[in-house]
Design brief:
InterPro entries: Rhodanese-like_dom (IPR001763), Rhodanese-like_dom_sf (IPR036873), Thiosulfate_ST/Rhodanese-like (IPR052367). This protein has a single domain, classed as Oxidized Rhodanese, domain 1 (3-Layer(aba) Sandwich). The protein has six helices and eight strands, in the order βαβαβββαβαβαβα. β6, α4 and β7 form a beta-alpha-beta unit. It is α/β, with parallel strands linked by helices and 153 residues long. The strands form two sheets. A six-stranded parallel β-sheet has the order 1-7-6-2-4-5, sandwiched between helices. A two-stranded antiparallel ribbon has the order 3-8.
Length: 153
């Protein structure tokens, strides 16, 4: 039986480097958690498209990403899938994040397989918060006044 080479595992990036790239507009931060998780806490500028919606090929709907932050669909339910991510990324690198890095690893593999250059944020939002990076929290009054999360909260 012949040996079949396996593709390399998708690259990972630490949360601090991911924040720098996303804040500079050089990459799209893609949150693949569920809307309820995103509503509790999320990285500024992140686009919400739950992992389960990535298999769909729709496009950004009404109430879409606008400023690059929030949900791919009005009301924060995600959706639009691959087409939404492609449109929002606009050719930039995609940085996938979830709670701990497992779902975002799956999303990274899926997006790369469909020609969307994607890197996994190692450790997910747990590591993001542990590293003291900026986060919008629904329980803070300032969040409701300052966040532009596209109706996700």
């Amino acid at each position: 039986m012949a040996w079949t080479p396996q593709p390399p595992a998708p690259a990972q990036i630490d949360p601090t480097a991911a924040h720098r790239l996303a804040a500079a507009g050089e990459a799209l931060l893609l949150d693949v958690r569920e809307p309820e998780e995103h509503a509790g806490v999320h990285a500024p500028g992140s686009l919400l498209v739950p992992l389960g919606a990535l298999g769909t090929f729709g496009t950004l709907g009404e109430g879409g990403a606008g400023d690059g932050e929030g949900s791919a669909r009005e009301g924060g339910t995600g959706g639009g899938g691959l087409g939404a991510v492609r449109a929002a990324a606009g050719g930039r690198l995609v940085l996938a994040v979830c709670r701990s890095g497992t779902r975002s690893q799956t999303a990274t593999e899926l997006l790369n397989a469909h020609g969307v250059p994607t890197v996994n944020v190692a450790g997910g939002m747990r590591a993001w918060l542990r590293d003291g990076l900026p986060a919008h929290r629904n329980d803070l009054p300032a969040h409701r006044d300052e966040c532009h999360c596209g109706g996700a909260i």
